[in-house]
Amino acid sequence: MNEEIIIAGFGGQGVLSMGMILCYAGIIENKEVSWMPSYGPEMRGGTANCITIVSDKKISSPIISKFDTVIALNQPSVDKFENAIKPGGMMIYDTTNIINPPTRTDIEIVGIEGSNEAARMKNTKVLNMIMLGAFLAKKPIITTGNIIEGLKKVLPERYHNLLPLNEEALLRGMKLAEMVGVK
Questions:
Q1: Domain range holding 63?
Q2: How many structural domains are present in the chain?
Q3: pTM score > 0.85 for this model?
């Protein structure tokens, strides 16, 4: 297994945290991991993305230009990274924030109402965990329990009271992804 992912969105959406959580969880499962963030100078609202690789084998380079999966949380990310997905790959995107959805026919496209679901949960900061759950439902490269353990490493201890909410968001994202395409 070698999964090369780019997670992209606006700063403040938890983009970098998603990649970091995947990496910590991968380490717990004795996998090889790589996390390479990229972000603008703005604290919130600027663009942010991270390349995350989780593999059973050594990772030759963290710098890649084609991805197995793109997780896009905003329109600029869909526009920028849709063509960077390998044929047969997958794009998961937040339908709430996308006006022009991806159109490629050689990839799996999974639209999730992540922001709307986060609003229903009364905490917009769980969008990243909803989208991470959707990804794991489609590509279960890491166990849910280890994602929560990875979250404990990333989330400052003063926010550990939010772990149950984040776990609920992860599970909701998984359920939403399982319902995509089901009529």
A1: 2-179
A2: 1
A3: yes
